[in-house]
Amino acid sequence: MRHVININSKWAFTKTATEIPSAIDNRWDFVNLPHSWNAIDGQDGGNDYYRGTAYYAKLIDNVDLPKADRYYLEFNGANSSADVYVNGNKLAHHDGGYSTWRVEITEHLTRETLIVVAVDNSANETVYPQTADFTFYGGLYRDVNIIATNDSHFDLEYYGGKGIMVTPAVDGKNANVRVEVFVKNLKDGQSIRYTVYDMEGNELATVTTTDTKASFAIENVHLWHGRRDPYLYCCEAEIIEGENVLDNVCTRFGCRTFRIDPDNGFILNGEEYPLRGVSRHQDRWGIGNALLPEHHREDIELICEVGATTVRLAHYQHAQYFYDLCDEKGLVIWAEIPYISKHMSGGRENTISQMKELITQNYNHPSIVVWGLSNEISIGGSDDDLLDNHRVLNALVHEMDKTRLTTVAAVSMCKLDDPYLLIPDVVSYNHYFGWYGGDTSMNGPWFDKFHKTHPTIPIGCSEYGCEALNWHTSNPTQGDYTEEYQAYYHEELIRQLFTRKYIWATHVWNMFDFGADARSEGGENGQNHKGLVTFDRKYKKDSFYAYKAWLSDDPFVHICGKRYVDRVEEVTKVTVYSNLPEVELFANGVSLGKKSAPDHFFYFDVPNTGVTELVAVAGACRDESRIRKVETFNEDYRLKEKGAILNWFDITEVEGHFSINDKISDILKTVQGKMLFMGLAAKMIPKKGDKVMGGFEMNEGMMQMLGGFTVLRLSGMIGTMGVNLTKEDLLKLNAKLNKIKKPKNK
Question: Are residues 212 and 246 both part of a single domain?
Fold first, then answer.
């Protein structure tokens, strides 16, 4: 029988070695795995986190290993590339930081064996990802194991998979199940025993054969039906010789049908099943991507609490444990490779190898319904090499998996006639109207236009969102980073997206705040704050409850603005979210009335005098909050940019005239504004080809998007381009804008 020995404890670690070490000496620190060397510097801003080679080393005493014919090292995640040395001998190289891979070490084991792993997350032109809005954490950030096996065993080197692939096909009330295994060194007298079990562990069928393929029929099959009923079966394969089991593998699987209809969205087991959910990154504050099982469990519980039916696992392969949890909870999954943001002519082979590993390692998960080919890869346009790369990937996916569909996440500036959109089976778009340019009202009409232009292509929304930190206001505006604007934004997007059933899936960007070391926005650098939940998972923002009101069946009521206590207005607006039909709000014990809201968003005008204790009641549910009347605005609620030259409230404004708090697009609508930006402000506007935050290259579409930024907001983002503006620069620009009249509204 195979043995899996976890070897996470006590690895020597160093970033200072200049060659492959032959021993562990005083240059090393000791760490336990999972481990990332960017857990701090990859989240603190500045885009200066360590990207290079670091070394991990461990001594293995052969006496501690079980007796076996063969031994393999298993790496479940080494970002981004890795070389493995055993007693000084280089045994393997692997490119791709998010998949499982293994290397046989049998012939190199000695009484005491030194394993050295050189892990490298440095920039290059061949391994994805290289350009993206998240931190590329380096390290051995998932488990490392030694697997001891018999000479006859299920293949451990077949693209890092389990060596077993199960393909169920529902036929009426029954299911036909095909099983294929990948075996090494099967000998005369040995055979393979296949057994299928139900969820309760009862044996349903068994077959013993020397064939690497087998088929079963499950009568009155119990379907895997998403969140409603995520029923799982299990298939075990064993290599046997007489009465002895030499090796075994086991995988769960689910029986379901699905299709994606351009008019009716996602159809699960013949029923309309709206996919409304979130995207997820795999990192945490102070931990990086070196997550433990309890972190994954907490994430899945929060995703289920919000009521999501789908998760986009972006932008790479996630931990097997998390896919398992998605199977168990009934979440429908979009799984993808990190072919993202910038097409690299030298990266094609890496997209192919990462896709082969993604599909092979995740084929048996019933939760997965689409394989993502790329994300925002056409941001710089679609050239022939990019298109051909996608055609190759699309064909590869359909060759490897005939049961699922392919998709892409296109970016706003990808034109509706781009041939890129015709390659996958279904399409989704990343849109940020109302945050990066435009306004919230543009989202629904854009999808209507796509649906009319391409009536046979299913369309989804793969990203949308806006950032929110602990800033607050009673007059939320685009770009203010307040919790109130984020709540308003998501209310608007929910109304527009969830009422268009032809949209096959929606994925909020993002479920959790995440590390993006190049970012310097919102007053807390190094993070993307679009999450519905904070990076440490300790605070659910108000927008979390907006989705819970629409998606969850668990009764609740939530008063928004709990962190926004001090308010200056005589009458203040209080928003309440609930999935119940009626809410009553009490202020200091006095009812302000009952309200119903088909959209689950309840708005109350509350007199603001002294201290007011608020209680919201919906059915048997209640929630409490408080507000306090103050004469002057509490400055703790105002956005203060870390390292900012100026904040928006420090700017002189003249009524009826522009300031650097106005949007660039509005200013450029005037002749004087255009002339100003050709002169003094010219160095603020990125030019085509310039590198901006995260390594993105400016193009016409991105330049149009910048029109939605205020001048001040843009000034805080262009430091990554090497443009350093002084306080005097901005004040001088503001003074000139104060002299330009705003056009009168017609």
Answer: yes
Q: Which H or E run contains 612? A: strand 611-618
Say if CB 351 and CB 386 are below 8 A apart.
Answer: no
Q: How many domains does the chain have?
A: 5
Please, which residues bridge with residue 617 across strands? 584, 622
Q: How many C-beta atoms surround the C-beta of residue 620 within 10 A?
A: 8
What is the rounded distance in angstroms from the CA atom of residue 603 to the CA atom of residue 478? 20
Would you say 581 and 339 are in contact if contact means Cβ atoms under 8 Å apart?
no
Letter for the amino acid at 260?
A: I
Contacts of 627 (CB under 8 A, 6+ apart): 561, 564, 565, 566, 567, 572, 574, 606, 608, 611, 612, 614
Same domain for 536 and 579, yes or no, is no
Instruction: Look up tokens 């907490």; give the residue.
Output: 298
CA distances from 91 to 84, 85, 379, 684 (A): 6, 6, 38, 50
Q: How far apart are CA 727 and CA 730, in angstroms?
A: 5
Q: Which of 508, 523, 554 is the last residue of a domain?
A: 554
* CA 350/CA 524 separation, integer angstroms: 34
Q: State the CATH number of the domain containing residue 207.
A: 2.60.40.10
- Tokens 């059915």, located at residue: 619
Q: Encode pLDDT of 183-198 as tens digits.
A: 999 999 999 999 999 9
Instruction: Classify strands 53-61 and 101-104 as parallel, antiparallel or unpaired.
Output: unpaired
Residues recognised as catalytic: 376
Residue 158 lies in a domain: no
φ/ψ of 654, rounded to 5, equals: -115, 125
Give residue 720's pLDDT.
47
Low-confidence ranges of the chain (pLDDT < 70): 641-649, 679-708, 716-725, 745-746
Is residue 269 in a domain? no
> Cis before residue 129, ω within 30 degrees of 0?
yes
32 located within any domain: yes
Query: What's the domain range around 116?
Result: 3-149
Calpha distance 358→173 (Å, rounded): 31
Rounded Cα distance between 475 and 327, Å, is: 42
Q: Which pLDDT does position 378 carry in this prediction?
A: 87
* Helices H / strands E in the chain, number of each: 12, 44
Handedness of CA 487, 488, 492, 493 (dihedral sign): negative
